[in-house]
Amino acid sequence: GLPQDLAGRRVVVSAGGTREPLDPVRFLGNRSSGRQGYALAAVAAQRGAAVTLVAAHTADLADPAAVEVVRVGSALELRDAMHAAVKGADAVVMAAAVADFRPVSLAGHKIKKTGSDPEPLALTTNPDILVELVGAREPGQIVVGFAAETGDDTGDALHHGRQKLARKGCDLLVVNAVGDGMAFEVPENAGWLLAADGSETVLPHGSKALLASRVWDAVAARLRDR
Ligand code: C5P
């Protein structure tokens, strides 16, 4: 088995892509599979943590063993579920792909064809849940964010990652190199783990479980030191 270095800890992980409803049958969504978040939840449970997984839409994934799964649809639902789940948690990882925008209004019935073109879709900005969780962070709680950075080269992706870490205020930021078939809808991942203390770790190309292990290594070290 794995080291039980998260025994006695409570952690919360978000996963998957939110769906922003337009009417009772339609939504705006994204291509997140939820695999990285599920791997994070599974590995944390294997290392002894009590885990809550807040899951938006995902591919057809089995619930990780010994993990409490809370299902949500929209960004606003994910937000409520996260604020409730993080109370008393030692660590929080926002791996969900949260929609940046949602339709301004939710039709009560299926929107019908009228024969003429529809009105442009009016959108409004969703709250940044990660920023909110950082704002509500309890003493000693570790908050981890994810960033998918395209960047033409490594320097670019890292530069954008550093800026995002500062802007969001989280303790750790996983920077995924995306593009060239990386990260989305594939089983493997690679990138960097940036910390608010300035440290920077390469996350070598490997399984999402391997990347999850490296993230929990960093979280466990910080929980030990606090
Ligand atoms: O700004 P960007 O979307 O690149 O940030 C990604 C990180 O912020 C992820 O950890 C994601 O879960 C989180 N996020 C959020 N709420 C949003 C948008 C992103 O918590 N509305």
Automatic annotation (TrEMBL):
EC numbers on record: 4.1.1.36, 6.3.2.5
Example GO biological process: pantothenate catabolic process
Cellular component GO terms, alphabetical: phosphopantothenoylcysteine decarboxylase complex
GO function terms (MF aspect): FMN binding; metal ion binding; phosphopantothenate--cysteine ligase activity; phosphopantothenoylcysteine decarboxylase activity
Keywords: Decarboxylase, Flavoprotein, FMN, Ligase, Lyase, Magnesium, Metal-binding, Multifunctional enzyme
Pathway the protein acts in: Cofactor biosynthesis; coenzyme A biosynthesis; CoA from (R)-pantothenate: step 2/5; Cofactor biosynthesis; coenzyme A biosynthesis; CoA from (R)-pantothenate: step 3/5
Catalytic activity entry: (R)-4'-phosphopantothenate + L-cysteine + CTP = N-[(R)-4-phosphopantothenoyl]-L-cysteine + CMP + diphosphate + H(+); N-[(R)-4-phosphopantothenoyl]-L-cysteine + H(+) = (R)-4'-phosphopantetheine + CO2
Record has Lyase as a keyword: yes
Signal peptide positions (record): none
UniProt cofactor note: Binds 1 FMN per subunit.
Residues holding CTP: D100, K110, P127, D128, I129, L130, F146, K164, K168
Region (Phosphopantothenate--cysteine ligase) location: 11-226
Limits of the DNA/pantothenate metabolism flavoprotein C-terminal domain: 6-221
Function according to Swiss-Prot or TrEMBL: Catalyzes two steps in the biosynthesis of coenzyme A. In the first step cysteine is conjugated to 4'-phosphopantothenate to form 4-phosphopantothenoylcysteine, in the latter compound is decarboxylated to form 4'-phosphopantotheine.
Family from the record: In the N-terminal section; belongs to the HFCD (homo-oligomeric flavin containing Cys decarboxylase) superfamily. In the C-terminal section; belongs to the PPC synthetase family.
Protein name: Coenzyme A biosynthesis bifunctional protein CoaBC
